[in-house]
Fold this sequence. Notes:
The chain is α/β, with parallel strands linked by helices. It is 35% helix and 20% strand. It has one domain (39-183): Glutaredoxin. Strands 2-1-5-4-3-6-7 form a seven-stranded mixed sheet. The N and C termini lie far apart (71 Å).
Amino acid sequence: MASVSRSCLSLIIVFLLGGCGNMMNDLYPSGDNKVPPALPGTTGPAMGQNAPDFTLSDTLGNSVTLSSVVTNTGVRGVVLYFTMWCPVCDTHMSAMRSGFIPQNPDVRFFAVDYVSGSVSAARAAEIANGYEGSGFIVLADIHQTVLGLYQATMGITVVIDKNGVVRMNEDFKDGTRLQAALAALP
Length: 186
């Protein structure tokens, strides 16, 4: 009886795995972005689209409007990094603070805090995590509006050029793609 059950179980597993199609491709991803290109001139979070505009408060109580920052003379672009103040976010933000921010003085770096729930709590998180005066401007996305506009989550990094076009919207990973996106800014 036990050998019949094992045989049936083995047969079921083989059947289920066989239905996965060409799953070996999933085990060795190419790293290529296979998201279809967005239509130029449309607004949205995808590469090639016009960046959705927004206004948020920074942790000092100042209103920051994306379109005003992007069109500011001398700014080549904007980086939005969506943070939860977790260890992974700290690793990403530390890499940006030590390498990307100093190398790109004409790019504005914003840490979008979408978890703290208030400007004062975002300010407290900024200070507690050592990001006061770091080169990041911390924005309090209290109602997770910008999180939704950019279809973001923890670690998502968005690069927007001086024309307001999204040039990158993906997880930070090792920073290679961020470096390429910043280098390609006009």
